[in-house]
Design brief:
seven-stranded antiparallel sheet, globular, alpha+beta, 145 residues
């Protein structure tokens, strides 16, 4: 199962980074491959919240659904994602640093069917995109008050 990890230090408070990242309305602003995303359950974000959306990867649109599996305010947020023959778990962590917040992501994928053949290419593409997306997130959060 491919694993993708990425982290970045952002010169903003944990509260601001956590609030921005876990607000699904903000996701397309720093992850341009996320064509759409919406919460499908009622109530505030937390364990059990369900989401669905469309992600564009390697020129294809992939629909997905997810369920929040971990939620600890200003510390961590996790979800289990399903998209066709691919499932994944994503864990986001938020840790204090001297100048702000260390934001990190661990993404574990399990692929089947024809996607299994494309798994190495998908993994390298996602790693490259994540570096760009994390830099965009840092730029957004460090230039807004």
């Amino acid at each position: 199962m491919p694993r993708i990890t990425e982290s970045i230090e952002i010169k903003q408070s944990i509260e601001k980074v956590f609030s921005y990242v876990t607000n699904m309305d903000n996701l397309p602003k720093w992850v341009p491959e996320m064509v759409e995303v919406k919460q499908t359950s009622s109530g505030p974000m937390g364990i059990g919240t369900t989401l669905k959306g469309v992600y564009k990867v390697m020129g294809s649109r992939m629909t997905w659904t997810s369920k929040v599996t971990e939620y600890e305010l200003n510390k961590k947020w996790g979800e289990y994602i399903s998209s066709g023959s691919m499932t994944s778990s994503e864990l986001l962590t938020f840790d204090p640093t001297v100048v702000g917040t260390k934001f990190a992501m661990i993404y574990d994928m399990k692929v089947g069917g024809l996607l299994k053949i494309l798994s190495p290419l998908m993994t390298s593409t996602m790693r490259r995109q994540n570096k760009v997306n994390f830099a965009k997130l840092k730029e957004i959060l460090e230039t807004t008050k």
